[in-house]
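User: Structure please.
Assistant: Input sequence and predicted structure:
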Amino acid sequence: MLSDIEISQNNKPEAIDKIAEKLELTQDDLELYGKYKAKLSFDTINRLASKKSSGKLILVTALTPTPAGEGKSTISIGLADGLQKIGKKSVLALREPSMGPCFGLKGGATGGGYAQIVPMEEINLHFTGDIHAITSANNLLAAMIDNHIKQGNILGLNPNEIRWNRCLDLNDRALREIQIGLGSAVNGTPRGDHFDISVASEIMAIFCLAENLNDLKNRIKKIVIGKTFDGRYVTAGEINAHGAMTALLKDAIKPNIVQTLEKTPALVHGGPFANIAHGCNSIIATKTALKLADYVVTEAGFGADLGAEKFLDIKCRIANLKPDAAVIVATIRALKMHGGVAKDNLKEENVLAVKEGFANLKTHIENMQKYGLPIVVAINRFVTDSADEINTVEELCRQNGVDAIMVSAWEHGGEGAKDLAQKVVELTAKPNSYAPIYDLAKSLKQKIEIVAKEIYRAGKIEYSEIATTKLAEFEQNGYSNLPICIAKTQNSISADAKLIGAPQGHLFEVKDVRLSAGAGFVVVLAGNIMTMPGLPAHPAAEKIDIDESGKITGLF
């Protein structure tokens, strides 16, 4: 059996200008990055923005992740290919992979089997340099903050109240807590500092929520970098960092266009994590995609409690988008794990465990129904799934008011997703009553508690002293009307990674909060979440290699 990277390398992609022609774009609309990658020009983006017609927006989300894998990207890509197979004009709008997971535990993130986007190695590694640009912009601001303090500190920044972290697009736990400015006075003011992974940086969030270059600069200008000795907030604009930072992002902000194995166009742009950020691709890419095709397939990171909630409560609200349908990806394997089966025993038929584990999928179905969206469950098929297990999931879904469609995109590409594509077309033709789950006029604590109780099914919310103090401070400074972005484990609906299945009435602990004034939301750190991941005992990087011809192996 071929690996994902072997399937990708055996595929012959088309020149990217030929892919663009499917979207009625010409070479003049493209800025080429080799034969198979390109960016869309500002002129093209602006021209399309004025176009009146708009396609249907389909969100792909999933049940709670397990070590067995769910295949959300595989289903997204297969669905877009399946829509093409049934004669519909479709395009993907996906996130860019971070190098952290590629070299860490997860490996590549471009789909799998015969439902992939290509060039797989390049997208998973440096791609067009967008995340590097974000890292540079983030760290330029950090350097300018410390330089301002060193050069006289006219603004009176308190070194102990700096709220801007450095970042790196790799998993490196040793950088979570560091000391900088050591050695001598020429090296700056000694203070504690922190690193986040680049995809958790506020710059990534701003990048993905900005409508255009001017909006990007204005949002960067509003970033709160820290406090003065007398407690006043200081912004990036006050140290004149916003112009240079935006200049670093000038090319990155343009959406990237690539293709699937079946030559379906894909806009791949922006990549915030969903467990520690808002988990959606850029607004610019999504809105551009909606002007280019009749059906746009997008996804939100991890389970519906994380990515989908943030897509619906943050991204769609900010961008004034109205999704037309939601697909919830599930696997029999994951349901059995949520039902208590160990990973080594997943090949054995266990209908009872499927029934027990369905409680997790049911919670996600109910949560998406709360947003007023039409829903379908996509069962990502594995060869070990038995007929009784599949029938059980289909019947349980019917009992909960949704259809479950078997999908074999990993094995058969778009052909294996045609039934799902047909169902999605049917769902998007129906009116829906989408609305965010909370009103922005509510207090920050009220918004946190609505999400914790309605989506995570918590019983009690407990705030640390520092979280309570900061939330009150944010509201006193005029930020009470912002949406919230909860950072928590992806491995449970709760904030406790050990609580699999469908925990109810649990304690939800808010440890800390961060103000992302430029992005336009408040980050809520719950449980033991880390904004800089670490590497596992045997990281995926150990298996990645390259030969003398430049051929990469072991990436996925």
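The radius of gyration is 23 Å.
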